[in-house]
Every structure is written in C-alpha cells, then in structure tokens.
Amino acid sequence: MKTLSVVVPCFNEEDVLPQTAKKLAEAMHKMMADKLIAPDSHIYFVDDGSYDNSWQIIESLHQSAEIFCGIKLSCNRGHQNAVLAGLLTVPGDMIVSIDADLQDDVNAIEAMVGQHEVGCDIVYGVRSDRHHDTLFKRLTAHAFYKIMRWLGVDIISSHADFRLMSRRAVKALAEHSEVNLFVRGLIPQLGFKTSCVSYIRAPRPAGQSKYPLRKMLALALNGVTSFSIRPLRFITLMGFTVSCVSVLLAFWGLAIKLFTNDALPGWASTVTPMYLLGGVQLLSLGIIGEYLGKIYLETKHRPRFIIEHVLGDLNASTDER
Ligand code: UDP
Ligand code: MG
C-alpha cells in the first residue's frame, strides 16, 4: 500500500480550516479503511505567511490528531510557491495538492488514487461545472485558458492546482529550478502517463477568495511570460506590418505628388505616423521589458520559499514510485 500526502496551501484561511481538516481527514480515514492508502498517510497544511489564526489552528489540529501536519512559510510567497513548497518537501508515494477552501471535491481524491493505481503518474482534477463561481471569475478564467492555448502553452482547461502526482513526477518537477514557477503550465510538460478526474466545483463555505484581481492578473502574466515567447514574435510581426504600411504610404504620397496637383504637405500625415510608431515602440519595449525583468529575477536564483516551522515528520521513507 502506498502512502498519500495531501498538500493544502493556506493563506488566512482560519474561517474554513476546521471544516477542511474535518472533511479531508474523513476522506483519508475512509481510504485507509478501504486499504487504498497506507495508514501512515498525512495531511500537510502549508501556511503561506497568514496573519490570522491559521497557524494556531494548524498547531492545534496537529496536537489533536497525528494525521495533521504543518509547514509554515516565513512570509507570504503566493499560492504557486506555497503549493511548490508542499510538493517538494513532504514525503509520500503519492502527493495530492488541494486548495484549503473546499471548492475542490475531497472525494475526488479517491478516484485520483484509483487512476494512480492503474499506472498514471499525474492525475488532474478538472472542474466539470463552475456555476458556483462568479460570472466575472468564469469569464476571466475562460479567457485566460483560451489565451494561454492560443499562445501555444499546453495547459489543461478548468484545472487549477488540484492534482495527484507520483513521487517520480514530483522528482521531475524538482529538477526545474526557475524562480517564477507557474506550476500549472509546467506539469503537462513533465510527460508521464496522465489522466483526469472531473468534479463539480463547490462554492467557498467560509472566508473570502484570496485571489483578488491583482493576484489573478499577476498569475496570468507570469503564466504567459514563463511559457510563451509569442508576444515577442508578435512585436516583430507588428514592426514588419507597420514598416510595410509606411512604405506603401510613401509610394502613395509620391503618386499624389507626381500625378495630381493637390499635394499639400498635411499635418495629419506627419503627426499620425509619429504617434502610431511611438505607440508601437512603447508597447514593444514594455513586452521586452517584461521578459528582461524575468531574466533579471531568474539570474538571482533566490529561494522560492523559506520554511519557518514544521509540525510532523518530513523525512518518512518513501518508495521510488
Ligand atoms: N493561497 C495561498 N497564498 C496566497 C493566496 C492564496 O496559499 O497568496 C491559497 C488559499 O489559501 C487557497 C488557495 O490558495 O487554499 C486558492 O485560493 P482561493 O480559494 O482564495 O482562490 P480562488 O478559488 O478564489 O481562485
Ligand atoms: Mg478557491
């Protein structure tokens, strides 16, 4: 029997954590009773620098039952880094990451374990229905996945970070040392046999979304610039198009001058291209700057997360798959 570790990133989740812990523990105990997972499987809450009582709750959960463990990051590093911190530090033969807010169906974990048993190294949790999300969230998420696919990024639609990974898939992920990690875009590139388990996304039972528009935009921008150089190619294309148009315009001006008498040197024909080109250049510089900034951050090789406290044992033995 294989051990399962469940990684739960938490940022200011005091309102929902007790419920989440209860639901997850129930699901785990059921799987243990059914002999689907080993009895030494654990749930690891990764506290992403919360400033509410999340860590105190995690501590008391750890005292109340051995199944609950905790990893406290030294400060808030964002959802992606919190997930990564969990994936890269917990033991276990299978590792499931799931949000703390119970929007992902904890009962889908059993189906994921089943898929792993038949040989899948990565099992994606895919939302079959998200009518509980706000219209804004649905529209922006839809647009994001569309744009990503258009930009050539291999991303699974309606899949966030609810997934099962085998030990060797996690090892492959650990080989990626980039600092700005967009976990969701990277995992499909690992290869291995994969499959999907669909579930209905529930409303958040308590607490507020920790993904305001600002964080959503940052995640989307990071996703695009981490995986696609198409925006840079687009600049080249734009430059080429604008150049062609200006050559045509020059010919047109020459023709007017040669064949008609109303060739008045116009204000518009001087000023408009100036603004147009200025705009194109600024936009291009902005896009290049975005990538340059990324290179700048990557070359520093800063740690992606710093662990402050650990509750439980992170060095339990694991088999290699
Ligand atoms: N989260 C985190 N760090 C952050 C923001 C969010 O660890 O800086 C966690 C949060 O606690 C939750 C998960 O990421 O477990 C997803 O966040 P949320 O449910 O608020 O996002 P939404 O479902 O609204 O997209
Ligand atoms: Mg959520």
Describe the structure.
The protein has 321 residues and is α/β, with parallel strands linked by helices. It has ten helices and eight strands. Helix content is 49%, strand content 15%. Strands 7-5-6-4-1-2-3-8 form an eight-stranded mixed beta sheet, with helices on both faces. Magnesium ion (MG) binds next to loops. The site of magnesium ion has 5 residues, from loops.
Quickly give the structural class: alpha/beta
One letter per element, helices H and strands E, the order comes to: EHEHEHEHEHEHHEHHHE
How is the biggest beta sheet arranged? 8 strands, mixed
The helical percent reads 40-55%
Q: What small-molecule ligands were found?
A: uridine-5'-diphosphate, magnesium ion
DSSP helix count? 10
Rg (C-alpha, Å): 25 Å
Measured by DSSP, the beta-strand proportion falls in: 5-15%
Shape summary? elongated
> Can you tell me the residue ranges where pLDDT is under 50 for at least 5 consecutive residues?
none
What's the β-strand tally? 8
The strand order across the widest sheet is 7-5-6-4-1-2-3-8
Quick gist of this model?
It contains ten helices and eight strands. It is an alpha/beta fold.
Write the layout of secondary structure elements.
Layout: E1 4-10, H1 17-33, E2 42-47, H2 54-64, E3 68-73, H3 79-89, E4 94-97, H4 108-117, E5 122-129, H5 135-150, E6 163-166, H6 167-174, H7 183-186, E7 194-200, H8 213-227, H9 230-259, H10 267-300, E8 307-311
